[in-house]
Amino acid sequence: MTNKCDVLVIGGGVIGTSVAYSLCKRNYSVMLLERSELASGTAGATDGYITYHTKKPGIHLDMGIQSGGMFDQLAYELHDAAGIDIEYEKNCGSIQVVDREEDYPYIASMVKEQHEQTRLDVAMYSIDELRKIEPALSPSLIGGLYCPTAGKVNPMKMVFAFAAAAKNLTCKIMENTEVTDLIIQNGRAIGVHTTAGSYYADYIVNAAGTWAGNLAKMAGLNIPIKPRRGQILVTETLAPIIKTTMQCARTTAIKLNPKMLETLPEKIIRMGTGFCIEQTADGTLLLGFTREFSGFDRDVTLEAIDYIAARAVKFIPALEDVNFIRSFSGLRPYTPDGLPVIGKVDEIEGFIMAAGHEGDGICLAPLTGEMVAEIISDTELSFPVENFSYKRFA
Amino acid sequence: MKDIIICRCEEVKLSEIEKAIEDGAETIDGVKRRTRAGMGLCQGKTCERLIAGIISEKTKKSISQIIVSTKRPPVRPVRLSLFKGEEDDE
Question: B interface mutation test: which of A323, A327, A329, A331 has the most B CBs within 10 A?
């Protein structure tokens, strides 16, 4: 087997496999190196939201809308290329539920801005109106933002579909192959040493997600991508009970007015103040989520189970008799400003970043893959890359 | 051999598990992520050993080398209403 190719992609998650697929469509020979197994990190331990309406107007929201819009074609394309159904549910809609009076004005003003500055279909609804869309919601809630164009997908299927489609083209996938060092010659990255031999390429893409900061360190770069743990509960399968994906608006309200944190117990702040709920194609509910800084620890905690389970029943009272059958946790690649790190690196030629998407990796993966392929092929960019430079942290 | 069901909770057939192994799955979790085997009500308590056996047979690895799935709470299904959450602090 040859150990030389055009592009080495490091990371077998949703970003790495998307990048590999976009490159293969342009006839690059690609090797994807994954230290464990495909979808064994963040992409295998998350929910499948394609949502953007939780963002303030700006590049983050714009990128989400553009990348989210790519799923329409992508789902068909991957089905044809790989024979895998990624369980894309277009326009399932999403609700940001307000459960505290004080959050309402912040969400309402964000919606107004979103509406004025983008073509996004969003509006505020009272709880009575929301219950016409989702009758399972508790009447004790206040109301919320509804975005009918949001979607959902099965993140693991998405990784396997990207990988299989890339493999059917020009990609070789190497699992259980952990990068131990980068090979840099005259300021250019030319290859990597791994636990399974050395590999060489013209370009090296760092799509190692939560672990991308460590990989960048091997290149002498300090890129502040940190693991942020998200715990999720899985219920037994139910007949369809909700069709939208839902998040609690509290986290967004706090982002818009950080002072609100002062009124919350320390334990809630530590767990990240969030809540979300989604029913998968298989009928299970995914109840989330925490956002905790606890290093690379992927344990689940009783504290988080208690917090999430109680919030689930508060939002949807019918869940009180429902069992949960599983808990899991995944590490989200956090960056200080919430935006990913994408693009070339000045210090080392041929080394390209594509990581740090935190909770938006699923939604932003299709566009990220295209952007990296466009950077490598030096063609016109689908989305401006300047804002994603690692230099903003300097 | 007839196509039998290996994971009873999620009704995953032997042929689907073999296909997952051909696709590169070499661990219980690898099969699980591709097929849902072990994701159901019993969380793999019934099928996990069978799947380990199939992986071992297909990959010629000894069964002791096959990585088992990550074990997570709860051991048995638990009702959501047993938890009180934030109210503890108020």
Answer: A323
